């Protein structure tokens, strides 16, 4: 199959525009690109640059079309260029985006969040998830006058010195007051709290364990309750980092099904369907501290992302968007499980169906995972070998079935290369 540049579809050397952009980027951007989208972190043969997106589909810089299961690494939740969200954003853009202060959208959005998120008595807005998690930590310390923060080993909370996964440029002082525990291990959490003693400001936890390169784990009720108890006993703040899972699992907050309310939640990724926005929601006892800390940003009051968020959050709360995502994820999961059995390939599917992880047995270097996703990519399906994926409300049963045709061929390729049938 040829794409519209006349190049064979799929694998290198089939991505000439992408290759040219990479070469230009290498000259003017350190490392070619920062963070998780650096070319070195992409599966082999993956495009780095894109030019268009619509619904659940993306087109790379060479014009290849993919059914997307990464959703922009989380921000897309209702579909790329969702007509209703984009109409609200465009209407606000005609009035203005940035002013000398916020628009009424800010108050409307804070009202909507406090009505929607179970634990929330107030809300504040930022741009990135890191802004929100960092603000939560600052507010917890301001409220308690204490320093220690309990953090799960391996959890991602953002990319500034207190939490970035790389230690380059980070001082030991930046990390001085972090104490680590193991996610879903109530005993290790209690031990960490004992170590913090009278200096415990807060506990931070992601909505579920969605670390890269390992099976996902839902938060257990025992763990969530232990986190609540540890904070209550110490007068510390329980911080839920709902940046990645927020509004994909439960519109009231991802720990609603567990019946555990955090004191502070950090939100971003999906809340404005791709428009740049983050939020902190909090309980009344932290209101004064939240007012006392000085936090701000040049773009934190922009009205367009807030207009987009008003539509996005209402849709996620008031329609079947979340159950639909879960159903589409279950359809994908069931299909892949049946295919894997048929091909004699052993793989594990973990996490909530709408944020799935697929890892292969005996695959420490992700050789099987990389082959699987690369073969799927060549057939127009964008997956990830070791990061959780994302379903959206825009994925239809037909999209899932079309994707399953690609995964069937991709699993056949894994079976051929790794010869597991009957092994
Ligand atoms: C993405 C993410 C962050 C950081 O958000 P940014 O918008 O990238 O700053 C924090 N916590 C979790 C759980 C995330 O997934």
Tags for this model:
423 residues; alpha/beta; Aspartate Aminotransferase, domain 1; Aspartate Aminotransferase, domain 2; 2 domains; 15 strands; binds pyridoxal-5'-phosphate
Structure commentary:
With 423 residues, the chain is of the alpha/beta class. It folds into two domains: 163 residues, Aspartate Aminotransferase, domain 1 (Alpha-Beta Complex), CATH 3.90.1150; 236 residues, 3-Layer(aba) Sandwich (Aspartate Aminotransferase, domain 2), CATH 3.40.640. Helices cover 38% and strands 15% of the residues. The protein has eleven helices and 15 strands. It has a seven-stranded mixed beta sheet with strand order 4-12-11-10-7-5-6, with helices on both faces. A four-stranded mixed beta sheet has the order 1-2-3-15. A hairpin with a 7-residue loop joins strand 8 and strand 9. Helix 2 runs antiparallel to helix 8, helix 3 runs parallel beside helix 8 and helix 5 packs parallel to helix 6. The longest helix is centred in the last third of the chain and has 23 residues.
């Amino acid at each position: 199959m040829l794409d519209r540049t006349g190049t064979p579809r799929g694998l290198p050397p089939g991505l000439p525009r992408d290759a040219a952009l990479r070469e230009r980027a290498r000259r003017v951007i350190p490392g070619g690109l920062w963070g998780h989208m650096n070319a070195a972190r992409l599966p082999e043969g993956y495009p780095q640059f894109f030019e268009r997106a619509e619904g659940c589909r993306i087109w790379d810089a060479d014009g290849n079309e993919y059914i997307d299961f990464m959703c922009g690494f989380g921000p897309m939740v209702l579909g790329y260029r969702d007509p209703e969200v984009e109409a609200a954003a465009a209407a606000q853009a005609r009035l203005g985006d940035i002013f000398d202060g916020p628009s009424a959208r800010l108050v409307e959005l804070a009202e909507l969040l406090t009505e929607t998120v179970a634990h929330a008595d107030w809300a504040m807005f930022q741009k990135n998830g890191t802004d929100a998690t960092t603000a939560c930590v600052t507010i917890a310390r301001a409220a308690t006058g204490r320093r220690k923060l309990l953090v799960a080993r391996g959890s991602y909370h953002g990319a500034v010195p207190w939490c970035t996964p790389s230690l380059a440029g980070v001082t030991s002082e930046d990390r001085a007051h972090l104490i680590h525990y193991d996610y879903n291990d109530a005993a290790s959490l209690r031990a960490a709290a004992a170590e913090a003693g009278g200096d415990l400001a807060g506990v931070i936890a992601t909505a579920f364990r969605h670390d890269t390169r390992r099976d996902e784990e839902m938060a257990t009720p025992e763990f969530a309750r232990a986190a609540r108890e540890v904070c209550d006993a110490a007068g510390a703040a329980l911080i839920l980092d709902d940046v990645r899972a927020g509004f994909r699992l439960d519109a009231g907050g991802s720990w609603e099904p567990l019946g555990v309310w955090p004191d502070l939640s950090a939100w971003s990724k999906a809340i404005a369907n791709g428009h740049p926005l983050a939020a902190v929601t909090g309980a009344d006892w932290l209101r004064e501290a939240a007012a006392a800390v000085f936090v701000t940003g040049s773009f934190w009051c922009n009205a367009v992302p807030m207009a987009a968020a008003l539509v996005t959050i209402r849709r996620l709360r008031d329609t079947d968007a979340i159950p639909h995502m879960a159903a589409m994820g279950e359809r994908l999961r069931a299909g892949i499980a049946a295919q894997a059995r048929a091909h004699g390939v052993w793989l594990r599917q973990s996490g909530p169906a709408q944020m799935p992880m697929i890892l292969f047995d005996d695959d420490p270097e992700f050789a099987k995972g990389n082959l699987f996703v690369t073969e799927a990519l060549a057939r127009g399906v964008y997956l990830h070998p070791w990061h959780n994926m994302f379903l959206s409300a825009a994925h239809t049963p037909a999209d899932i079935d079309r994707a399953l045709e690609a995964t069937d061929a991709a699993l056949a390729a894994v079976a051929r290369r790794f010869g597991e049938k009957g092994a």
